[in-house]
Amino acid sequence: MLDIRKIDQDPETFQERLARRGSDISFAEVVELSKRRRELIVRTEELRHQKSVTEASMKTADKKGPEFASFRDQMRALSQEIKTLAQSLKETEELLNAEVLQIPNLPDEDLPVGCSETDNRVLRTYGEKPSFGFTPKEHWELGENLGYLDFERAVKVAHSRFSVLKGPLARLERALIQFMLDVHTEEHGYTEVLPPFLVNYDSMQGTGQFPKFKDDSFILERDNLALIPTAEVPVTNLHRDEIIDGSELPVRYTAYTPCFRREAGSYGRDTRGLIRQHQFQKVELVQFVRPEDSDAGLEQLTGHAETILKRLGLHFRTMILCTGDLGFSAAKTYDLEVWLPGQQAYREISSCSNFRDFQARRASIRYRPEPNSKPQLCHTLNGSGLAVGRTLVAILENYQNEDGSITVPEVLVPYMRGLTEIK
Hints:
Order of helices and strands: HHHHEHEHEHEEHEEHEEEHEEEHEEEHEE
Largest sheet: 8 strands, mixed
Oligomer: single chain
Low-confidence stretches: none
Strand content: 15-25%
Distance between the termini: 51 Å
Radius of gyration: 27 Å
C-alpha cells in the first residue's frame, strides 16, 4: 500500500511513476476522499470540543433552570451530529482504503522503462548451453516415456493442469526440496518455517494478493480461507500487526509449501507439461530488513537463489524486469531464467523482489530502531529459492540422454540414496 499522505502532497509524481508501469490509475478519487476524510476529522474534533465546553457549563448551571435545559438540548444535538460524522468518517475511510488497496507499488527509479517482458534486460549469465549429439526432447515426453509422469490420471483425479509424479521422479522432486532447504538453512542463514497452506483474507490482503487478484485464487468461501499461491503469503504475515525489535533484523525465513493458482487469464499458455500448473511446489525465501538495507538484501537474496542453480550445473541468466513487467507489489524484481534445451527457450524459475514498505504498510509490519524509539515500517523481500517443479523440468531437459534416461545431478545423488540415473 502506498502512503496516502505522500499521495496528497504530490499526486502528479505518483501518477507519472505509475504510468511507467503502464497503469492508467487516476489519483483524483483518492485525493478527494483523503480531503473529505481530513475535513470530517477536523469537524468531529470541533464538535467534541464544543461538547466538552457545553458539558462543563452544564455542571455549573441550575438543573431546574432553563439554562440547564438549553445545555442539555445542545449536548443531545452535538452527540447526534458527532455520531453521524463518525459514520460518515468510517464510510469515507473504507472507500479510501478500498481505492488505495487497488494501486500497485511504485517502480524504482533505476528500472528499464518498458511495456512487457521483451523490454527486460539481461544482467548476467552463468554457464553455457549444453550441447547434444541428438535432438533433445521436452520434459513431458521424457517423463511420460519413462513412465514416471502421469497427466491422464491427474485429470481423472482432479482436473487439467495437475500432474502425478511416480517412482524416482517423485523422489527427485523431494530431493530437490530437501537440497534447497539444506543450503538455505545451513549456508545462507535462513530459519526454516512450515506454515499453514490455508490463510485468511487479511493475510492475502497483507501481501497484495487481495483484493486485486482474488479471481486467481482458490477460495474456500464457507471458511473464509484461501489456498496459498506462494509461501510468501503465510511467511510474510507471521509478523503482521507486530513490532520487531530492531536488533533482530534482518529476519530471514525459508519455507517449502505446495502452491495453488487458478491461473485465471492464462488459458492457452503452457497447456502441456509442468510449467504452468494449478498445484506446484516451491521453496521460498523471505526477508524483513531495515529500509537502508533492502537494496543489499535483494542482491543477497537473489544470489542465494542463483547458488541453487549453480550447484545443479544449470545454465541460466539473471534479468532485471522493466517497469511494465513488475508484479503488483514489487518495486524492483530480478528474474532467474533457466535454459530448457527441449523447448529451446529460457523460462523463469525464480522471481526475487524488493517490496520496499508496500507490504509492511498493508500488513502493519514495523520495527523499533532503538529501545523506546518510534516504530517504523520494515522493508520486505522475497524470492523463489527455487520453484521446484520448474527445477525438475530443467533437470529432465538438461540432463537427458539419447536413450531417454536422465542423469541425476551429482549434488542430488546423496538425496537419491545413491541413484545416479533415472531409467
